[in-house]
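Figure S7 source data.
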Amino acid sequence: MDLRDHRKVYTKFELLENAVNKDPFEQFRIWFAEHKEDTKEELNIMTLATATKDGKPSARIVLLKELNEDGFVFFTNYSSRKAKEIEENPHAQLLFFWGEHERQVRIEGVLVKISKEKSIEYFNSRPAESRAGAIASPQSQIIPDRKFLEDRLGEVNQQELVMPDHWGGYVLKANYFEFWQGRHSRLHDRIFYAPENGGWKIGRLAP
Ligand SMILES: Cc1cc2nc3c(=O)[nH]c(=O)nc-3n(C[C@H](O)[C@H](O)[C@H](O)COP(=O)(O)O)c2cc1C
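Tokens for the predicted flavin mononucleotide complex:
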């Protein structure tokens, strides 16, 4: 595979210090609304990067389900690889790539479990198929074959679909944001927000 001649020029938008919102959550909401308007892909995809306590990283896609006053919420299996990493090292990063707008958003923070009540509330709002799948799948564990899953699903479908203890949400409490806007000549705009005196310091990074 040789992609050395594959190149894209970024010219659609700009991101300037005097035009960004003072609050990174608001800036995120503005860009997300534009992404929502134009995307043809799954709307709420994000990459979640975690690491073991000795710094071995892993990343995967999860779905953003809520942005509230606590932060960015997603749901998963509490026995999965990511959950084990979060348990020993709660520092994590979320990464959004929004190609239509030539944008990337990086958000750093600390992950904490949301309340069981809130997880149950969301779990019960999911379609039966999704609830059954979440109960049936021992996420991230080695299983013998596909049939194992289908058999588990068969058994689960005989029961009431109650949220298992090994499932629930996390919220990323954000403490750093970086908004990247593709520009001409690879001189992209990178605006960061870092905590300062109870508010946010806004600055620019070289691309
Ligand atoms: C489009 C897409 C959406 C996904 N959404 C989720 C999700 O919301 N929660 C989740 O646990 N896994 C989700 N996954 C699966 C994860 O990427 C991953 O395979 C799984 O969580 C196990 O990761 P781990 O072994 O690192 O814990 C999604 C995958 C894709 C491709």
